[in-house]
Design brief:
13 helices, globular, eight-stranded mixed sheet, 11 strands, TIM Barrel, binds iron/sulfur cluster, alpha/beta
Length: about 280
């Protein structure tokens, strides 16, 4: 599917956080684009609507286009402070495929190098991040940088169903391994937890990353009464494939326990929810 790429001028680029990210210990979020062409079936962002800074066309056509904030690096240079703990990004993937053409992240990383915050966390699943390895290495010399790499399952057949436009699982493991081998602090983020073999997934995550493992199951209204939640597309996929258990809070806890046991046995920290994401801020 051809993606449309738009550009805009933003009024601000760093947003003070509240809710989940604030509880996890972050002070600001950085979102270089509106909408995300990965268009994952479960993505909670379009369910946030205006609370996620979206326009109606974004949540109605999630994943069909993206709008880059052209002046992101310039605004960031103005607003960076040494006490900030920044999460990039809760509302888009900074290394979505269109970034290959737009190249917004190199300018953002250069701004971070020039005026480093206390902690800079990049949340991505994009192999494109390796393009910026040199700049990431420079950032890691100036501040605490952590790459939180989304690894949602060990099964590529599952990945193809829920995350059609994302890179294959093996390519993502290779990316994470390359970042780790380059000396960058990395975490595998199993969020959301898709149907998988929990022990196999944790074993590979331990081999490919250097830091704590973070996991989070699908958000379900049974335990999360309000706010962002799993998109209806993913709920329908679970029903179609007989994967409803992965939406069941009791089953989800069982899988999280199994993952935690496996990670800790390998000497690795493991957490979920705000406690898990808090480990990224250290
Ligand atoms: S990569 Fe992240 S922000 Fe983009 S669609 Fe998937 S879950 Fe949503």
């Amino acid at each position: 599917m051809p993606f449309q790429i738009f550009e805009s001028e933003a009024k601000s680029i760093l947003s003070p956080v509240s809710g989940f990210l604030a509880e996890a210990g972050f002070t600001h979020s950085l979102t270089p684009a509106r909408n995300c062409t990965y268009g994952c079936s479960y993505c909670y962002v379009p369910t946030m609507r205006v609370q996620g800074g979206l326009r109606k066309e974004d949540w109605l056509h999630w994943g069909e286009f993206t709008t880059f904030k052209n002046n992101a690096a310039e605004l960031l240079s103005r607003d960076l402070r040494s006490d900030q703990i920044i999460y990039c990004s809760p509302l888009t993937d900074p290394y979505q495929p269109a970034e290959a053409e737009r190249r917004l992240m190199p300018g953002i990383l250069e701004a971070v190098i020039a005026s480093p915050p206390r902690v800079f966390v990049i949340q991505t699943r994009g192999p494109l991040i390796l393009r910026d390895l040199g700049l990431l290495t420079e950032v890691s010399k100036r501040t605490t940088l952590r790459i939180s790499f989304s690894m949602t399952t060990n099964r590529d057949d599952v990945r193809r169903i829920f995350e059609t436009h994302c890179a294959p699982i093996e390519e993502r493991w290779g990316t994470l391994r390359a970042l780790t081998d380059a000396g960058i602090s990395t975490s595998a983020t199993i969020a959301p937890m898709l149907p998988c073999d929990p022990e196999v997934l944790v074993d590979v995550a331990v081999r490919c990353s250097s830091g704590p493992l973070v996991a989070d199951p699908f958000h379900v209204r049974e335990v999360k009464r309000s706010g962002a939640t799993t998109r209806a597309v993913a709920l329908a996929i679970c029903a179609h494939h007989g994967w409803e258990a992965w939406l069941d809070p009791v089953f989800q806890m069982t899988v999280l326990d199994r993952m935690g046991c496996r990670a800790r046995a390998a000497g690795r920290e493991f957490g979920n929810g705000t406690k898990g994401f808090n480990m990224l801020t250290r």
